[in-house]
Design a protein that fits this description.
The chain is α/β, with parallel strands linked by helices. The chain contains eleven helices and seven strands. The protein has two domains: 238 residues, 3-Layer(aba) Sandwich (Rossmann fold), CATH 3.40.50; 45 residues, no CATH class. Helices cover 42% and strands 11% of the residues. The strands form two sheets. A five-stranded parallel beta sheet has the order 2-3-4-1-5. Helix 6 packs parallel to helix 8 and helix 7 packs antiparallel against helix 8. The chain is globular and about 65 Å long. The model has no long low-confidence stretch (mean pLDDT 93).
Length: 298
């Protein structure tokens, strides 16, 4: 019997380690066919945002070989199977950007540096100007003692430019839980101290970069205070009322019934009353975290 994937965040781990799998891979097809330069999907907590972002990243990342983990999935029955591992890809998560200001700032820097380190070879043979910019950005990213985001707004866009130069392809960018540091900073009373740097980081990579292919962002909400996306006119927002991507986050009735039956349970009225609390797009959707915990505890 397959393991219950409660809390699993890695698509590769989900597929390689015999966890129960609900196939959402046709989301990749929709993403490519829509061709929206920047897409923001907002969903409540524990709705599978991170695992879907991991799936998107694994599917496009040119540094990986993902044929085995996508073997037998729905996307492989489409013409878009040829897009597997064809793009330089940046995947960043701000899910852990919480607590105090120093922790939030260090988490953001760590996430950017993780991608810099993964692609360190694209920084070889820089021009004198590019080397100066690289050294400036690197010094700001590695300075954890100053507790601010000053000087790093070009750190993602600079990496994007170098990736495009190296691979001669535009870059896929995936940012998970983009709003966590904004919400935490607002709640803890230092919003203004991080807003400018974080907004600039998003703006320069998602709006003004000439190296962007497509970007997909997730969060709980669209941050409205001072409208950080005011000049991001290439942004498509898909909230819980929107039909676009509605079926890919959470489980529908058929997926829920199949899941429960696999583990010897049934989708009866009591289960529906307890867990069918969401209407997304034009369909009923179950929270996967709640269902998986029900399966685990019976």
């Amino acid at each position: 019997m397959k393991k219950i994937p409660t809390g699993i965040k890695s698509f590769r781990k989900l597929r390689e380690e015999n966890y129960y799998f609900v196939d959402k891979t046709r989301m990749i097809k929709d993403f490519l066919e829509r061709g929206s330069e920047v897409t923001l999907v907002t969903r409540p907590r524990k709705f599978g945002k991170t695992i879907n972002m991991s799936m998107l990243s694994e599917s496009f990342d040119i540094t990986k070989d993902s044929k085995e983990i996508f073997k037998g999935t729905k996307i492989m029955d489409t013409p878009y199977a040829s897009e597997l591992n064809q793009y330089p890809t940046i995947f960043i998560s701000f899910a852990d950007a919480k607590r105090d200001k120093a922790s939030i700032v260090s988490t953001i820097k760590d996430q950017v540096l993780k991608e810099w380190d993964r692609y360190v070879y694209v920084f070889d043979d820089l021009s004198k100007y590019e080397q100066n910019k690289h050294d400036f950005l690197e010094s700001r990213l590695m300075n954890y003692s100053n507790g601010n985001l000053e000087g790093i707004v070009d750190s993602i866009s600079f990496l994007m430019d170098k990736l495009k130069d190296y691979y001669h392809k535009e870059v896929m960018v995936f940012i998970d839980e983009y709003d966590t540091p904004f919400i935490e900073a607002h709640t803890k009373g230092f919003y203004e101290e991080v807003r400018g740097g974080l907004s600039g980081l998003l703006h320069n990579s998602l709006k003004t970069s000439n190296s962007l292919k497509y970007a997909f962002i997730t969060g709980i909400q669209r941050v409205a205070k001072e409208n950080i996306f005011s000049d991001l006119n290439n942004l498509v927002v898909c909230d819980v009322t929107d039909q676009r991507y509605a079926s890919y986050f959470g489980f529908d009735n058929d997926e829920t019934r199949e899941l429960l039956e696999y583990y010897g349970l049934e989708l009866n009225n009591k289960v529906k009353e307890m867990y069918d609390g969401y209407h997304i797009g034009n369909g009923d959707i179950y929270n996967p975290w709640s269902l998986l915990n029900y399966v685990d505890t019976k």
